[in-house]
Amino acid sequence: MSVLRNKIIKTIAGNIITPTFLPDATYGSIGGLSFVDLESTGIKEIVTTTLHLEKKLGSDYVQKLGGLHKFFSYDRPILTDSGGFQVFSLIHRRKSKLNEITDEGASFVDPITGQKDLLTPESSLTIQHKLGSDIRVVLDEPLGMNDTPEVVESSVRRTTAWAKRSKAQYLKLLEQEGITYSNKDTALIEIGSADESSFHRPLLGAVVQGGGNHEMRKRSAEELIEIGFDSYNFGGFPIKEDGRLDLELSEYLVNLLPTDKIRYAMGIGNPDDVIALAHMGWDMFDCVLPTRNARHGYLYVPKGEGDKDFGN
RNA sequence: GCAAGGGUGGCGGAGUGGUCAAACGCACCUGACUGUAAAUCAGGCCUCGUGAGAGUACGGGGGUUCGAGUCCCUCCCCUUGCA
């Protein structure tokens, strides 16, 4: 049963028709493509990485230059991640007392400078605010699929707690700018709806955790919905041992999320997966996979049109 | 013409009497890659064989030696110095 949603996500930088896929641009660059090239692919919006920008350039610097859009010379919607997943991957590379997650935040050792650093829910949102992105994500604690129930429970609890702090920080930053916020604001509208003007504030999404455990996913979703966000995101690394996305979990989760909010599957980028999840009702996707694969010489072709002469 | 140094796999470049099918790069091939600290990682890369393994290689020819990419002679070619 397909529930493919063609809707419109409103952002400050313009509207996005769903379902949509956002490629990831580490420093605002998609694997060496110019924005002109990017546009020719039909891509209308991008994701960029908070932590890389913060560590390499500094959000203060980007802010001084007028924000990401001016800095990149890109006027379409830009989504920033919290930096949580990058810290997560760093921590899993090298576990130590310096690389750890506590209730305060995620501490890690900067692999370039070797200095200890701490990313908190508040600092992540402040950085994203300075960067001036259109869609933002709260800091969360991502997990894989095979953690113990205790670890999963802890991740969900912490993710909810961080989401609360993030929302508070978000509202504080909006207030400083004199931007109004209402729980009734809706950034997801029907196509053809009379009101297609651009949105008046950046969007904020929270990330549902719970690993491969349905009950925990449900709890996580409910707790986040209680706080209230513009988007609810499929978090963690929901890839099974066979290397495939857990489609059952994907479908279970999408049906727990409010239909009048954006449902965003983070890090899902296998073309077949994107199509499958879009039909489940997921609105938005981002992933490194297509661009990374392309950089590694991998070409996607429609089913049945592969050519042995081209390898993959 | 004289002098000196060289000619090794697709390329660069190790190797100076046995453990060399040839280090190490590059290129190439295959596999991996899922909120980008992955422009990475794993394997292959003379021929035949799934494999153990076998065969043929170090400019050409000849020689010394149990054994030569490595030593000697000769021929061909390249680079540099002197005329």
What is the fold's blueprint, element by element?
Blueprint (H helix, E strand, L loop, with lengths): L6 E5 L2 E4 L2 E6 L9 H6 L5 E3 L1 H7 L2 H6 L3 H5 L5 E3 L3 H10 L6 E2 L4 E4 L6 E4 L1 H11 L3 E3 L11 H29 L10 E3 L12 E6 L5 H14 L3 E4 L12 H8 L7 E4 L5 H10 L3 E4 L1 H7 L17
Parallel strand pairs: 3-4, 3-14, 4-5, 9-11, 11-12, 12-13, 13-14
Antiparallel strand pairs: 1-2, 1-10, 6-7, 7-8
Helix pairs in contact: 6-7, 7-8, 9-10
The structure holds one RNA strand of 83 nucleotides.
**Portion of residues in helices?**
25-40%
Characterize the largest beta sheet: strand count, sense, and whether it forms a barrel: 8 strands, parallel
Under the CATH scheme, which architecture would be assigned? Answer: Alpha-Beta Barrel
User: Could you give the count of β-strands?
Assistant: 14
Mean pLDDT comes to 89
- What's the CATH topology label? TIM Barrel
Overall geometry = globular
Based on helices, strands and strand pairing, what is the structural class?
A: alpha/beta
Identify the strand order in the major beta sheet: 5-4-3-14-13-12-11-9
- Cα separation of the termini: 31 Å
The CATH class is: Alpha Beta
Runs in which pLDDT lies below 50 for 5 or more consecutive residues are 308-312
What Rg is obtained from the alpha carbons, in whole angstroms?
19 Å
Can you count the helices? 11
Domain module tally: 1
Order of helices and strands: EEEHEHHHEHEEEHEHEEHEHEHEH
- Tell me the fraction of residues in β-strands, as a range: 15-25%
CATH homologous superfamily classification: Queuine tRNA-ribosyltransferase-like
